[in-house]
Specification:
By secondary structure, this protein is mostly beta strands. Helices cover about 5% and strands about 50% of the residues. The strands form 5 sheets. Strands 9, 10, 11, 12, 13 and 14 form a 6-stranded antiparallel sheet that branches. The radius of gyration is 21 Å and the shape is globular.
């Protein structure tokens, strides 16, 4: 049993493995005033508690979730990014970056979603324009932008020059079908967003891509982000297609498309039951990703289940190979 996790007004957020030694445990905490923050516990490989840090955002900000997005070195500031709320709820209003200096000083920067240039770029251009105009109108009138969304903070991508924060946006739904448990509470997705953060903790670019799963799903983590030569590749899976987006180290979109994943079973894709189908997408090793799950198809008076397992390999010649 790990030390320092359980207690009153505490919930486990995530566990992050470290490349060199041990792992980090992220714990959500609330004080007597119901203000939210995050405590990061560092453990050695055998589970011994090495250190813990409580993030202290100050009044008017509640921290919901975060990840360490840089190398951990005692002689350099620790780089962290996460989501915050201006209320005491769990809906995020923006992201924060944090530098924890070797002397313990915590230096925060806050960016509302409305201040991210491409946060709404997953929307059709006309809808994106209206959303941006609405936010700009509120800002011109001196009103606070109250846009909020549920965000699942994913594993960051740490690179030589910048670090990339990854978040997936979703809403909760009470009509999610699971083949084992039946109907239960789950999630409906809208998009994922990526934020480039430099070594000084400053946001330098952002980008977004839609998650084409507007129907119900009970499995979080729908997007994978990986290095693609000198660029970055993000992709997700929907309707037996791999949807992908390529952007450069300045956050500019270079390419966006999709391609079908073949199967050795003859099925009618128009009969695919998206509301019942389930899948999991996970990083495997190096630049390889696994996609597995079960698709349901209407076949007359019965429903056919097709189990599938796909290995996606991102090759250095900037092509994607499926096996």
């Amino acid at each position: 049993v790990l030390q320092g996790i359980y207690g009153k007004n505490i919930n486990l957020l995530d566990i992050q493995l470290l490349e060199k030694e041990g792992f980090l445990v992220y714990v959500g905490i609330r004080d007597e005033n119901r203000e939210r923050s995050v405590r990061i516990n560092a453990y050695r490989r055998k589970g011994d508690l090495r250190s813990n840090i409580v993030l202290k955002p100050g009044p008017g900000r509640n921290l919901l979730d975060c990840k360490v997005i840089g190398e951990i070195r005692e002689d350099q500031p620790l780089n962290i990014a996460g989501t915050y709320s201006v209320s005491k709820g769990t809906v995020a209003n923006g992201i924060f970056t944090l530098l924890i200096h070797p002397d313990g000083k915590q230096e925060f920067k806050y960016y509302s979603f409305g201040n991210l240039k491409h946060f709404f770029s997953y929307l059709p251009p006309s809808v994106e324009e209206k959303e941006v105009e609405r936010i700009e109108s509120k800002r011109a009138k001196g009103k606070r932008n109250s846009y909020g969304v549920n965000v699942s903070v994913r594993e960051p991508l740490i690179t030589r020059d910048n670090n990339i924060f990854v978040g997936e946006c979703y809403s909760r739904s009470s009509r999610v079908y699971n083949s084992y448990y039946g109907w239960q509470t789950g999630y409906m997705y809208s998009h994922a967003f990526f934020v480039g953060v430099n070594k000084e903790g400053k946001v330098i670019w952002d980008n977004a891509m839609p998650i084409d799963r507007f129907y119900e799903s009970s499995e979080l983590q729908q997007v994978i982000l990986t290095e693609f030569g000198e660029q970055f590749l993000s992709f997700t899976y929907s309707k037996n297609h791999l949807l992908y987006k390529v952007f450069d180290d300045s956050g500019k979109s270079v390419q966006e498309s999709d391609f079908p994943l073949t199967t050795n079973v003859e099925v009618n894709l128009s009969a695919l039951r998206e509301d019942l189908s389930e899948y999991v997408i996970r990083k495997w090793y190096d630049n390889h990703v696994l996609i597995y799950g079960v698709n349901y198809f209407d076949a007359g008076f019965e429903t056919v289940r097709v189990f599938f397992l796909k290995k996606i390999s991102v090759e250095e010649d900037k092509s994607a190979d499926q096996r």
